[in-house]
Specification:
By secondary structure, the protein is mainly α. The protein has one domain: lambda repressor-like DNA-binding domains (434 Repressor (Amino-terminal Domain)), CATH 1.10.260.40. The protein has helices at residues 6-21, 25-32, 36-44, 51-61, 65-69, 71-79. Helix 2 packs across helix 3 (36-44).
Length: 81
Amino acid sequence: MTEKPLSEIITANLRQEILLSGKSKGRIAREIDVAPATLSQYLSGRILPSLPTFARLCAALDCSADEILNVKAITASHDNE
C-alpha cells in the first residue's frame, strides 16, 4: 500500500479544519497575517506554512498541530514497520 506524502496529508487536513471552523478563508488569512493568495497556496499544496504561521493557523482554527499533521496515524504506521 502506497502512503500519501506528508504534504498531501497536511493540506487535506488543513482544508478539513478550515471547513469545520466555519470561518471564511479571507478571515483566516487576516487572523494569521498572510495574504489570501498565500493561504490558497497552502491549501493547494504548492507551499507549506512556516512553523510560526502554522502555529497561528492552529490557533485560528482552534485545533492542535496533531490534527493537521496526523501525527498519531504517522506514528502508528511507523510502529507497524
